[in-house]
Amino acid sequence: MMSKKKNAMAMLAVACAMLSACGGDSSHSSADPDPEPQALVLSEANAARVAGDTLLFAQLLPESFYAMISAAGFLATGQNCLSGEASVQSDDLERPVSASMSDCVVENGVTVDGTLRFDYDSEDPDAPPSELNAESFTLISTYGDTDNSSETHFSFDGEIDFQVDENLENSDFQEVDGTLAFSLDSTYDGEQQSFQRQWILDDYRQIGVNQSGAYLAELSGDVTLGDPAGRVVLTTYAPVGANGLSSCPSAGDITAEGGDGTSLNLSVIDNDDILITLNGVGTHYSCEEYGAWLQEAMDFPNSPI
Q: Over the Cα atoms of the chain, what is R_g?
């Protein structure tokens, strides 16, 4: 019987791997990289969308990760899918090193699919993984009734280097390379709505900062957006607090650099003053004005994400 701590680490190993890369061994993929995406020229036409997508992504990555810990935890302890199939391979220290899932329902309304591989940099049997890989991982979550329902899809194909503290509470994404996608299909008061996003990450880092109980993050690296299509380079000057799509960021100073020398900076002055600087021209928004600026560009569903 595995100890409670070892079970927790096994849960982490499986779930962490869901944010990772494919490959036959524990090293990073040796496949030739795709051509570098074209840099996005930042302008008034796309600035709000870029700002909104950046903050959405910063919140989605850790939240999806922790959701996967709960959804996949039972796989490492030998339990079966409610329907579908799954198998987990362990090393000599009883730590998961690979997992394969096919339409595996881990709990009512939550289905996972994909092939996972991961590695450890320590011989300590309780150590979490250090390098994680996933191929065509998908998590589907459904809930609601006929009038109000939603189905969310989260998927990741790529690789990640990851660190977590001993309490499994704070995560640092040291390097992420791959494609992250999120979609929401919902029915709200009988009206059908859809929301889709995709990000391609290259040498991306997201380092968590716990400030007075709030999750803040330092973001850096290349992120390619699906629409508007193009690559931006993120640099953080003060950790960012992303509070979802329906409220203002709580803190932060972050810049996205685009093509042709263009740039977009978001700086939180206080809880009702957001400074947006596009190509050297700054505009102050109240929280309400900032929300309206994003709403028009992001096309949020009425139901909360």
A: 20
**pLDDT tens digits, one per residue of 201-221:** 999 999 988 887 777 899 999
Rounded CA-CA distance 253/275 in Å is 9
Cα gap 227→224, rounded to integer Å: 9
- DSSP annotation string for 49-80: HHHHHHHHHHHHHHHHHHHHHHHHGGGGGTPP
Look-up: residue for tokens 């972050």? Answer: 254
pLDDT greater than 60 at residue 12: no
Angle between the N-to-C axes of helices 47-72 and 4-17, in degrees from 0 to 180, rounded to the nearest 10 = 140
Quote the CA–CA distance of 47 and 278 in Å, as a whole number.
7
Domain boundaries, the chain: 4-23+38-223
DSSP 8-state code for residue 261: G
Whole-angstrom CA distances from 251 to 126, 211, 231, 243 are 35, 10, 24, 10
